Amino acid sequence: MEVGVAQGGVVLLVGAGDAIGAAVARRFARGGYKVCVARREAVKSQGLVDEMKAEGCEVHAISVDARQEADVQAMFARIEKEIGPIEVCLFNAGSNVNKPLLETTEKLFFKAWELACYGGFLVGREAAKYMMQRGRGTILFTGATASVRGGKGFAAFASAKFALRAVAQSMARELGPKNIHVVHLLIDAAVDSEAIHQRMKAAKGIDAGDIPADSLTKTDSIADAYWFAHQQKRDGWTHELDLRPSVETW
How far apart are CA 50 and CA 219, in angstroms? Predict the structure, then answer.
């Protein structure tokens, strides 16, 4: 077990898919944390749960709709009562959609904001409620290029990610003096994941084996960045950290 505050502590990952969420789960488990992976359908995390349990980790999969306040509140209450104190909380849910402006319906625009921003607010607020009682904790948010730059076709997604960034900044300024570290990790890159491989294959005909080495950001590198931020001393906290491959244009 690595040095840290993990004694009986829990890391909660909301929007924990098979890429970033799974990598963060493994990284914090190595640091001695109990892991709770939460997504809309917990059964989709069963493979990760089986893998980690076989390695001796304590891991729980939870179904939650991060857009529903009552669901989020019930999840936190259950974890705090049955599993342990939530020391670290990551909001990783995304709503990446690329549509021309005139094809961006009211429903699509709202759903992008509801998941990427409103869900982040609900999760972050609930995490803060419990962490403030103990006077410590780390709240992590996954950002993207769209958090700082609205691209063609990304009116819905960028507006939601811009807004989540603002929520994170406001939380950091309010909660920092209360010893709660709020971090926004801006991933200015394509993530080395199966979903991105399929997208590149469909758009450009590029097979995964033909992608140049280190041109995509690996999920383990993202997890290490979150672990690094969480381990920082109070006199040198990072709020926003941008991550990209050396070859990325920016």
Answer: 20
The H or E element containing residue 184 is: strand 180-187
Q: What is the pLDDT along the chain (250 residues), one digit of tens a residue?
A: 444 455 679 999 999 888 999 999 999 999 999 999 999 999 999 999 999 999 999 999 999 999 999 999 999 999 999 999 999 999 999 888 899 999 999 999 999 999 999 999 999 999 999 999 999 999 999 999 999 999 999 999 999 999 999 999 999 999 999 999 999 999 998 888 666 666 665 566 767 666 777 789 999 999 999 999 999 999 999 999 999 999 888 8
Enumerate the H helices of the chain as residue ranges.
20-30, 46-54, 69-82, 106-113, 119-134, 155-175, 194-204, 219-231
What pTM was computed for the model? 0.91
